[in-house]
């Protein structure tokens, strides 16, 4: 018997990911989340430079991390779409088994 041996590279799951960790969709969502917040912090905080940088980083880093990681290993827009679909199609079951909208 002649079996062909296929070697699977260690980084085969890294395709389509940024730095091998984050999906491109999550990266775009994180950037779209953080850019408006960054602009608002830089433009409207009435602080000197060092406190402004500290406050901005305190807001931007968790927001960007949340955007990169997503919710339950899904991107936020995909999760929000699933949640919205569930929210629109849910029903209340009454005592007699009737469905009320």
């Amino acid at each position: 018997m002649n079996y062909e041996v296929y070697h699977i590279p260690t980084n085969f799951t890294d395709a389509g990911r940024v730095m091998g960790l984050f999906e491109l969709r999550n990266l775009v969502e994180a950037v779209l989340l953080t850019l408006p917040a960054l602009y608002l912090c830089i433009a409207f905080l009435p602080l000197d430079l060092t406190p402004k940088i500290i406050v901005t980083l305190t807001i931007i880093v968790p927001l960007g991390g949340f955007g990169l990681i997503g919710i339950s290993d899904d991107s936020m827009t995909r999760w929000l779409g699933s949640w919205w679909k569930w929210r629109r199609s849910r029903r209340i079951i009454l005592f007699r088994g009737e469905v009320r909208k």
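DSSP finds three helices and four strands in the chain. The beta strands are 17-18, 22-23, 92-93, 99-100.
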